[in-house]
């Protein structure tokens, strides 16, 4: 189910300069949340369009989860305004929207690849793989790529789950100085995984998808694209199909999570 709700901000914490974790109180949205789904946030009347944000994790309560947490980076006037919200304020939120990650039966060995803020839905996926699908943390490897140490997010969160994690940065300020797809390729060569999941910049997703496609490995990617409505009305988030040339899918309703073999990146 999808809800439109005036949620209450539980916290809005700056964890790195310009990068925030925003928790919203909504038991209904938490109950419908799944890794890969997202919400559309109306920031204020001065910011005309809602903004899409992946669900990063659930907010624990004494019983059922109390709400959802978003991970976001300040990149423009909308997110800059969002960063000013404090605990107790209200935000109009629509969601959860979109399709979640799919985990085929029998999956035991998984590679997770994140680029920048694309790590947001993948941490929720890692929790789901371990807590709901019973996959051993040692059977999962995560690869986190970023421009610099400031933007290399969530490595400690993955490690606290027991997941071996490799960090790469463009400038070498943290982890390995290389593209995140390089250690990913080495991990694939060392032992074929059952599944690969990725979210990040288009060039990274194309590289990951091509590696999986060439080796016939199940692969899903979460596509980051501009959205105006999040409901399939505006048709602005078109993604070209790989399996049917000249036709398109839409990230808000058909995705944002796609089988990599279905779309052209």
How would you sum up this structure, described in words?
The protein has six helices and 15 strands. The relative contact order is 0.14. Helices cover 21% and strands 34% of the residues. The chain is globular, with a radius of gyration of 18 Å. The protein is α/β, with parallel strands linked by helices and 265 residues long. Strand 8, helix 4 and strand 9 form a beta-alpha-beta unit.
Strand/helix succession? EEHEEEHEEHEHEEHEHEEEE
Give the name of the CATH architecture of the largest domain: 3-Layer(aba) Sandwich
Number of helices: 6
Distance between the termini: 29 Å
- Class from secondary-structure proportions: alpha/beta
Q: How big a fraction of the residues is strand?
A: 25-35%
Whole-number mean pLDDT = 93
Largest sheet: 7 strands, mixed
Helix content: 10-25%
CATH class of the largest domain: Alpha Beta
Which spans of ≥5 residues are poorly predicted at pLDDT below 50?
none
Count the E strands: 15
